[in-house]
Amino acid sequence: DAKTTQPTSMDCAEGRAANLPCNHSTISGNEYVYWYRQIHSQGPQYIIHGLKNNETNEMASLIITEDRKSSTLILPHATLRDTAVYYCIVRVVVRGSTLGRLYFGRGTQLTVWP
Amino acid sequence: GAVVSQHPSWVICKSGTSVKIECRSLDFQATTMFWYRQFPKQSLMLMATSNEGSKATYEQGVEKDKFLINHASLTLSTLTVTSAHPEDSSFYICSAGDSSNQPQHFGDGTRLSIL
Question: Pick from B6, B3, B2, B4: which is nearest to B78 by CA?
Answer without folding.
Answer: B6
